[in-house]
Amino acid sequence: MCTNNIQEAMAMVFFKASTIPTFIFLLLLLLSYDMIIISLAQTQAPAPGLSYTFYQNTCPQLESIIRKHLQTVFASDIGQAAGLLRLHFHDCFVQGCDGSILLDGSASKPSEKDAVPNTSLRAQAFAIIENIRRLVHNVCGPVVSCSDITTLAARDAVFLSGGPNYNLPLGRRDGLTSATVSTTLASFPPFAGNTSTMLAYFGQKGFTPTDLVALSGGHTIGISHCIPVAIRIYPTPDPTMDEKYYNYLRMTCPTGESTNTTFMDIRSPNVFDNKYFVDLMNHQGLLNSDQDLYTDARTRSIVTNFAVNQTLFFEKFVSAMIKLSQLSVLTGTQGEIRANCSRVNSNDLLILPNNQDGKLASY
Ligand code: HEM
């Protein structure tokens, strides 16, 4: 039994988690492919330079290529969906959604990737984006940016895990620079922060308290390492934490330095649903930044509303995600369309014609 299965079994024992076997779940999703669409996207005007029909003539197959590829990836490992969703958030929060998170650094010039909040991003997420880039460029030529691919992959990660489907404005261009490690570090709120800290960080970028709570609902899928959790269980339990959950976390993270991982949403860790908010109401939120959304009077009722109304959560999540996806985008003649997502074009000594550049790596 692999570590993930053991954790899942433990979570089932402790919380009777409703984890639908992944293959049945994906089958249901395939059947309902076109049935769940939140068209609310069209109600938000795109940022200047972006459009809902951007690739209509230049790459009409774009969205189907991405969705089909991710269906295959997730059929063998649904956990990768969480990695892609987090990757998009971490791209957009540092100098905007410009694909700068994807750039490799060097020993003398570390990149965003090398900064602490990003070192726990899944390596496979980067490989998946580059694989999609190859597939797309092989069909359409080098006309689609890595930042648009990252944005669409996050959308499909949400949908293919059971969340809402929505349309996205496209036309982002890739940035030419990576932020420094210190700028990257300063861009993210600390996981030990409380709701005031989160409201301040997200407010600065134009997000409302409802946006913050909805986006935090991204923690309905995926895993965390023990380190961000340790401060809540060692040396003494956080008093806001449910006792049963505390015992579970102590077993999963036997020491503060443990390299184990634990689910972000104990009830349905692989399904994009509103159970994360049910967790918070039961004092079973994982991070301090999660649980405090229920403790703080300013956000408590939003948590409760999402916990009892998944449709409302999905609507607000979609609206906040579209906002997130348009933060400081580069458009028009700004930036470039990278021929390899991990480096800017000027660093490519050899770009093969039409990007027929090799096979896909695993993932
Ligand atoms: C509100 C501020 C946020 C904080 C403090 C925060 C912090 C964290 C931390 C500490 C982890 C665990 C990382 C690890 O140890 O591997 C994590 C995981 C994750 N976060 Fe957030 N996050 C925030 C907002 C968001 C947002 C807005 C999204 C997306 C909409 C998001 C999506 C995710 C996902 C999907 C994971 C699981 C990743 C995986 O399984 O690989 N987070 N977050």
From TrEMBL:
Q: Which UniProt keywords apply?
A: Calcium, Disulfide bond, Glycoprotein, Heme, Hydrogen peroxide, Iron, Metal-binding, Oxidoreductase, Peroxidase, Secreted, Signal
Q: What is this protein called?
A: Peroxidase
What sequence ranges are listed for the domain Plant heme peroxidase family profile? 49-345
**UniProt: Ca(2+) 1 binding residues:** D91, V94, G96, D98, S100, E112
Record GO terms (molecular function):
heme binding; lactoperoxidase activity; metal ion binding
What Enzyme Commission number(s) does the record list for this chain? 1.11.1.7
Which residues hold Ca(2+) 2? T220, D265, D273
Cofactor section:
Ca(2+); heme b
Kindly list the positions annotated as binding heme b. Answer: H219
GO cellular component terms, alphabetically, are: extracellular region
Picking any one GO biological process from the record gives: hydrogen peroxide catabolic process
Chief place of localization:
secreted
Q: What does this protein do?
A: Removal of H(2)O(2), oxidation of toxic reductants, biosynthesis and degradation of lignin, suberization, auxin catabolism, response to environmental stresses such as wounding, pathogen attack and oxidative stress. These functions might be dependent on each isozyme/isoform in each plant tissue.
Q: Which InterPro entries match?
A: Haem_peroxidase (IPR002016), Haem_peroxidase_sf (IPR010255), Peroxidase_pln (IPR000823), Peroxidases_AS (IPR019794), Peroxidases_heam-ligand_BS (IPR019793), Secretory_peroxidase (IPR033905)
CC cofactor note = Binds 2 calcium ions per subunit.
Q: Which residues bind substrate?
A: P189
Annotated disulfide bonds: C59-C140, C92-C97, C146-C341, C226-C253
Which sites are catalytic? H90
| PANTHER family, per database record | PEROXIDASE 16-RELATED, PTHR31517
